Amino acid sequence: MISLVREMILYMGARKKWWLSPIILILLLVGGLIVLAQGSAVAPFIYTIF
Questions:
Q1: Contact status, residue 46 vs residue 39, Cβ threshold 8 Å
Q2: Per residue in 3-41, pLDDT tens?
Q3: Following CA atoms 19, 22, 27, 33 in sequence, which dihedral angle do they give, to the nearest 10 degrees?
Q4: Residues sharing a CB contact under 8 Å with residue 33, sequence separation 6 or more, in sequence order
Q5: Within a 13 Å sphere around the CA of 35, how many CA atoms are in the beta-carbon half?
Q6: Which strand (E) or helix (H) includes residue 18?
Q7: Up-side HSE of residue 41: CA atoms within 13 Å toward CB?
Q8: What is the largest CA-CA distance in the chain?
Q9: How far apart are alpha carbons 19 and 5 in whole angstroms?
Q10: pLDDT score at 14
Q11: Following DSSP, what letter does each residue of 1-50 receive, concatenated?
């Protein structure tokens, strides 16, 4: 997992693709929200955001 993150950072640095970093960050945050909302009492509040 750490090697994947390192390779992504090296790729973005070498190819000057720094605009990918906010997209990846937002995808990770939304994915984390979905995982947390599956079995918790917070689910109805998170679903109202979307």
A1: no
A2: 998 998 999 999 998 999 999 999 999 888 877 777 667
A3: 180
A4: 46
A5: 6
A6: none
A7: 0
A8: 44
A9: 16
A10: 92
A11: -HHHHHHHHHHHHHHT-TTHHHHHHHHHHHHHHHHHHSSSTTHHHHHHH-
**For residue 40, what pLDDT is reported?**
67
Tokens 């979307």: give the residue. 50
pLDDT, residue 45, reads 73
Check residue 48 and give its pLDDT: 73
Cβ proximity of 43 and 49 under 8 Å: no
Q: 19 is written with which tokens?
A: 């605009």
Model confidence, pTM = 0.64
Question: DSSP label at 39?
Answer: S
